[in-house]
Amino acid sequence: MGIADRSDVIKMIDKCTDCGAILEVPHDSEVGEIVECPDCGLDFILVEIDGQLGLKELAIEGEDWGE
User: Fold this and answer.
1) What is the pLDDT of residues 2-31, one digit of tens each?
2) In the sheet where 52-57 sits, what is the strand order?
3) What are the backbone angles phi and psi of residue 48, rounded to the nearest 5°?
4) How far is CA 10 from the centre of its chain?
5) What's the first-to-final CA gap in the chain, in angstroms?
6) Domains and CATH numbers, the chain
7) Contact indicator for 19, 37 with CB cutoff of 8 Å
8) Bridge-partner residues for 24, per DSSP?
9) Which residues pair with 10 in a beta bridge?
10) Could you tell me the pTM of the whole model?
């Protein structure tokens, strides 16, 4: 048995903006899913812009303590 074609497993590959680690997005992922960097733990969200899929750093808003 040979090496399996990974095109059905990986939808896209990108790099972490913080540490440069390779981010692999599974083929069955949907827009809005969160992908975590395996090295530093930074979260990204899968977005679609003009028909193209991409990863955007997930910005979590902190609480506003009236400051």
Assistant:
1) 444 455 556 788 899 999 999 988 888 899
2) 34-36, 43-49, 52-57
3) -125, 125
4) 12
5) 62
6) 6-57 (2.20.28)
7) yes
8) 13
9) 26
10) 0.70
